[in-house]
């Protein structure tokens, strides 16, 4: 009877070991098969959290802005998704009280012309520094000579609409571009005419 109990105990241990290790080997084999089949394709985890959610609670009209020139097209250009604070600085919960710490972009932070307010070159470079973090100067120079001529005298927002709806920030046709130049240089031309009289 002792041999039967011993034999049963050994068989149960073997069955238990086989069950545990057999399952592990089977799982390991399946994992190796999946790893070979998957190859370079990895599961990408995307967070659902909207980084601009808090901003959009008050700035509801900015939802369209995010889909514009600095929205989805920026992902293709710079390889990462933009959010409000990347351009407008780190905004705290009480930023309304200290709104001067928030970087704002106005249509004319410096104004061209003879009787208009000018920013000093240091202020202009500071205002343009956020833009040039992504928009490198070399490609801008190649794109248009105007970038070189105006770089130290005007802010980017003099000519460019930062929150344009179209993919290109300066998405004007040729006539509209000329009008933009004429609008700014009009008083220079008037001054020349007066001096010429």
Automatic annotation (TrEMBL):
One of its GO terms (cellular component) is periplasmic space. Residues 84-184 form the Cytochrome c-type protein NrfB-like domain. Gene3D superfamilies: 1.10.287.3080, Cytochrome C3. Pfam families: Cytochrom_c_NrfB-like. Keywords: Signal. GO terms for molecular function: heme binding. NCBIfam families: cyt_nit_nrfB (TIGR03146), PRK11659.1 (NF008659). This is Cytochrome c-type protein NrfB.
């Amino acid at each position: 009877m002792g041999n039967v109990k011993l034999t049963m105990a050994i068989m149960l241990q073997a069955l238990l070991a086989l069950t545990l290790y057999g399952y592990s080997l089977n799982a390991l084999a399946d994992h190796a098969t999946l790893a070979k089949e998957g190859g370079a394709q990895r599961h990408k985890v995307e967070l659902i959290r909207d980084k601009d959610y808090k901003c959009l609670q008050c700035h509801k009209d900015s939802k369209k802005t995010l889909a514009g020139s600095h929205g989805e097209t920026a992902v293709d250009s710079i390889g990462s998704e933009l959010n409000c604070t990347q351009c407008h600085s780190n905004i705290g919960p009480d930023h309304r009280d200290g709104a001067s710490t928030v970087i704002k972009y106005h249509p004319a932070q410096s104004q061209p012309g003879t009787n208009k307010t000018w920013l000093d070159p240091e202020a202009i470079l500071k205002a343009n520094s956020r833009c040039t973090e992504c928009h490198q100067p070399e490609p801008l120079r190649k794109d248009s000579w105007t970038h070189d001529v105006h770089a130290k005298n005007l802010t980017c927002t003099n000519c460019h609409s930062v929150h344009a709806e179209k993919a290109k920030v300066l998405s004007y046709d040729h006539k509209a571009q000329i009008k933009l130049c004429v609008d700014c240089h009009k008083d220079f031309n008037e001054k020349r005419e007066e001096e010429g009289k």
